[in-house]
Fold:
Amino acid sequence: MIPVVALVGRPNVGKSTLFNRLTRTRDALVADFPGLTRDRKYGRAEVNGHEFIIIDTGGIDGSENGVETHMAEQSLLAIEEADIVLFLVDARAGLLPADEAIARHLRSRDKSTFLVANKTDGIDADVAVGDFYALGLGEVHPIAASHGRGVTQLIEDALVPFIPQVEPAPALSEEQANAAYWEALEAEAADAAEEAEEEAFDPIGQPIKIAIVGRPNVGKSTLTNRILGEDRVVVYDMPGTTRDSIYIPMERDEREYVLIDTAGVRKRGKVTDTVEKFSVIKTLQAIEDANVVLLVIDARQGISDQDLSLLGFILNSGRSLVVVVNKWDGLSLEVKEQVKDMLDLRLGFVDFARIHFISALHGSGVGNLFESIQEAYESATRRVSTSMLTRIMTMAQDDHQPPMVRGRRVKLKYAHAGGYNPPIVVIHGNQVKDLPDSYKRYLMNYFRRSLNVMGTPIRIQFKEGDNPFAGKRNTLTPNQMRKRKRLLSHLRKAK
Structure:
């Protein structure tokens, strides 16, 4: 079983820096700003061949109120989940009352706890960590997470109880060594073949990544918790509660998913806080990383220009889309009709996307989302043969011929798949670069109807057919050469 390691401590002691160091990523937001992390963030890490799961948590200082109370609850839940707790303190700031309060809580739990003094770079570590022995948690491990100093030794010490002790194997005879060598070669070849098979994309075996995006305070985290059936992320009636993208694996109906709860995206002119700018970047990265995006809209506020801007980014990224209208409960029939009319008016250009009317708070309509998510994902990853695409293209031409360009009709020759997720159709032909946009849209809609593609954009690329005789001179036969010579001689005499 893979051990779980939780990082806990006061705000701004370097937990997210250590998380990024161990996972070799930049998944956790890091800045010199206390209280940046608000939710539990999970990552997979490996040190010297030993795998473990690491949990980054929000800081606890005992003065929490409002949204910070929920942050502290998330941190305490991480302690209960973990096999090992790394309690981080700031060696530069010294021992503070908040450190003592956390230490009292950890001593009351039956957890393997390691006291870690971070930020020891540039100071005398032995002197700086002396006060922390008063916490009664045993040895103090000095590290510098930003530079990686002392981190590997810390993790090796922490994982000792979880590393199986292997007895040294007895010496082999020469015959046994040769047999073992050939067995190892065969196993390596089998592994290489297996890896090659795994590299072929298998949409059924891959977890579906679902990014939940929208403006601040439209109910993204509430929807995440409703889907999971637990208070996994901090929910508070205040815009900007979620600051980082939280990746949460889950399983539903024997199908694996990864939920991505993201920070709200406001208009660029309103984003002045540095932390919020980082959060917006994380949200846009989550969209590109996802297979299906749930665009959450507040039914009571309607569709804003920012919603349309976010929608444009989703489409440009080629992600599958499901529109979720939240806070549908409590609206009068008249208001509901007005909202539906507004959706038809402003979202008419994404008529391929399913629209769901839900209440994340009460759960109504949430269960139906997964039908549209699976439909969109299957449409985006479906394999279609060249013969099928060419047949559909021919039918489209028969129903509506391409226009004439400079006296010649555009000719479409054949079509084939150019990629998936999003589906890309490549059409080869003559003068295809001169096709008007209206005919390109006609072809795209024709392919969508014929293939029954829902929930995902289709991209069509056109390639000009190569002229096999372009740049080549005709080779004359000996008879043609003699005729050409006589003709040139005759022309010279005529002059």
User: Anything to note?
Assistant: Residues 103 and 207 are 39 Å apart (CA to CA). Residues 386-464 form a domain with the GMP Synthetase; Chain A, domain 3 fold (CATH 3.30.300.20).
